[in-house]
Amino acid sequence: MDEELLREHLGNAAAAYAQLRVVAQTGSTNADLLAQADAPDRSVLIARHQTAGRGRLDRHWEGVPDKQIAVSVLYKPGIKLVDRLGLLPLAVGVAVTDVVPQAGLKWPNDALIEGKKICGILVEAADLDSAPRVVVGCGLNLSLSKEELPVAHATSLMLEGIDHDPARVAAALLEALENRVQQWYQGAPELLRDYRSRCTTLGQAVCVERWGEHIEGRAVDISPTGALLVETAEGRQEFSAGDVTHLRPAT
């Protein structure tokens, strides 16, 4: 895949983005975009191979060349939307499930097919108190074989029998991101509605790890700011961050 082929698949949707770049390899597409203070709003960087990818909670991973794809987009939302940033990772998750409807979302934004991770999402920000810059990044497993999967609880589009052509997938993801991020900008109620309908965490018994604590309860809702609401023995608690595990029922 190159920029010309990507633009061909995007068609008129390419106009939504100020800059489209495709590279063979980089350390981290998110880091590259954040380092470019003068990059225009809606700049896109796609890599066919990442050597220093990062996930939530600063987990590091290295991709397999040409069998995964890293897509990052830079947004400059302005100061007024900073208090709404908690919803942006959820919007990105919904966009991924628009492209891969077989996937559900484990809060906040792990895209899973029958419990196996198909896509990782990381949203990072800089200069929030002056001129906010936010980068959303998606690392999607395209054609990894079982032997190439980074962990046993991962999968790929190829293994699931889903179209894994890099240019088609990247173009579809960019179109979906434009739609869902626009909903985020506008505060559209259907964004949270669609997230709730695709969130496999809701209704589950969960354990939330936060600040060294482990809190168990039942996930009951998503707040208007994107936080997870959990009914615990001590009452309802709200989590804007944390690592969630779905607990298996006792047998």
TrEMBL record:
InterPro entries hit by this protein: aa-tRNA-synth_II/BPL/LPL, Biotin_CoA_COase_ligase, BPL_C, BPL_LPL_catalytic, Transcriptional_repressor_C
BPL/LPL catalytic domain span: 1-185
Keyword Nucleotide-binding (UniProt): yes
PROSITE patterns linked: BPL_LPL_CATALYTIC (PS51733)
Keyword annotations of the record: ATP-binding, Biotin, Ligase, Nucleotide-binding
Source organism, top-level taxon: Bacteria
Enzyme class at the top of the EC tree: ligase
Identification of the protein by name: biotin--[biotin carboxyl-carrier protein] ligase
A GO MF term: biotin--[biotin carboxyl-carrier protein] ligase activity
Pfam families: BPL_C, BPL_LplA_LipB
